[in-house]
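User: Structure with heme C, tokens only please.
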Amino acid sequence: MHILTKGCAAILLAFCIAPAWASSPEVIARGEYLARAGDCVVCHTGPGERPFAGGLRMSTPLGDIYTTNITPDKETGIGNDSFDDFERAMRRGIAKDGQRLYPAMPYPSYAKVSEDDLRALYAFFMESVPPASRPNSPTEIRWPLNMRWPLRIWDKVFTDKIGYTPDPAHDEAWNRGAYLVQGLGHCGSCHTPRGIFFQEKALDEQRTAYLSGGNLDNWFASSLRADPDFGLANWSEADIAMFLKTGHNTHATAFGTMIDAINNSTQYLTDTDLTSIATYLKSLPANQASNKEVAGAPQNGKAYVQQCAACHLADGKGHAPYIAPLAANPAVMDPDPSSLINITLNGSSRVVVDGMPDAYRMPQFRVLLKDEEIAEIVSFIRTSWGNKAAPVTADQVAKIRKNTDAASDAVVILKMR
Ligand code: HEC
Ligand code: HEC
Ligand code: HEC
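Assistant:
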């Protein structure tokens, strides 16, 4: 390699540039794998747009913003970005023009990504993603909130150091899992609760809030800690790996925004990486603070029997792994019932693994059932068959109904190139 570079100085520069810059197919393939691990495609591909051309609308507490074009198009994408520009956006949240990015881009997590992995990612985007022309859409955040300089302070207070330092107290598998979960996997951006400045309350296992469950976009991403009832206490490492690979296991089925993670990211990870993720998650102790006895008295189950028992059965056991059980399912006992209410109102979009959409799907009930009826059914599920959780009210259902729509029927498969 250096012989080639030195030769370049002597011989014709233009002649040498291409071979000196082209990355090996192995590096590009690794970059592609890492782009899967980071789930870049789900955010950076707007509806009907080419892969990574941007344009997906995302809501933030300040207003809506759009994801950007990260294809190597020179006019509208990142085609003129050097590796250093890319590194600053990915790990520090600073755009090429020096402006701060909104943390809707998960750079607080990507800060952990190694330089080596970033180089492979950069090679994948620059050398194998086809350029697509689509000018970036302006944010819909109004003045003065659209000023980006306060984000400088935000970054100072809420972001961590750059890179991941292996913890010598743990083995290689644990450290690989920690690196993937905290870094590219950005699991905490949904599964960690956020504070009043929209910051994740923890970025690693040093604090017990980490992965203790978070509410984003009307879905509650459950605790990934060893919390009994609503966490992963009863899931084995194999159960976790199977869930991430296929969207199903004997305890539960993926739904809500977790479907985006399964469909476009985790199913593509190797079994070794999935097992490492499971090893890391299983090492997180229960979060005592949220581990309260909140059980309500059993509720009236008549409406459940009429509407739900045909699929989920009278004893709540379902037909795992295709029709999720509701008994002993952690998502059913989340302290925050948003996901349970949301899926009952709106149903689920499709898990697509290996290009095959799921045959069974949770239907929507928003048209058929009133808020009171949904509250009654959901309260029944939360307090039956050994499930222990607080009942919910019609007001809680009304609030989520107002902010959501029925899940789409469409089978969406996002290509990366
Ligand atoms: C959860 C959604 C989300 C994910 C996942 C995501 N991004 Fe972003 N990204 C955004 C948003 C939103 C912006 C624009 C932020 C702004 O306007 O301040 C952005 C901006 C960027 C920028 C700066 C763009 C520019 O035009 O200068 C780069 C580079 C980038 N993302 C790369 C990536 C890569 C590579 C991945 C995967 C490893 C990724 N993003 C994953 C939401 C996301
Ligand atoms: C875009 C948001 C989002 C991201 C990113 C995300 N999740 Fe989730 N996840 C959810 C939601 C919402 C649920 C609850 C619905 C369900 O059970 O499928 C969930 C559920 C889960 C469950 C099932 C938990 C249970 O108690 O039923 C596991 C395991 C899981 N996620 C692991 C992960 C891992 C590991 C990552 C990172 C690689 C990750 N998730 C990233 C939103 C997300
Ligand atoms: C036609 C069959 C069918 C009916 C009727 C049905 N469900 Fe489902 N439900 C499913 C399937 C299939 C899933 C798995 C998620 C998916 O793949 O869409 C599911 C998932 C769920 C989940 C999420 C659990 C998980 O881990 O995935 C909840 C909660 C749920 N259903 C509640 C209900 C309630 C409440 C009713 C009655 C109001 C109901 N279901 C009626 C088929 C059904």
